[in-house]
Amino acid sequence: MAALPSDSRFTYAAADSAPVSRPPFDLDEVLAPTVHYSSGSQCHEEASLRLQPDWRPFVLAFPAVDPGGANQCTVCMEGFRSSDECGRRIPCGHVYHADCITTWLSLYDSCPLCRLKVSLERTNGDK
Asked: Could you tell me which residue ranges the RING-type domain spans (predicted)?
């Protein structure tokens, strides 16, 4: 049986199994199409024309908050500034830049951290 070429970047194996080849995973490469960074440390939508039009008003209805103990937005990995007015608290309590969470919710319907489903439909108690 011929041996497969070995490259330490691609070979993974359990102690009791044969090596398995997997390509390396680059999170920056995966996230690059959804968010880009400006020199001002703000996150922005890269393709705002492709966003679902209903998410922006919905996200802007989330409470604007001082991020407090939150060090960074986990969507763009950029820090919050104390005077940052675009921090939005989503229903699960996590805080993100408004543009970042709008972009995220246009692609996925859940919180990036806890995966709580976020819906455009509001409950009767919401205004």
From this structure: 73-115
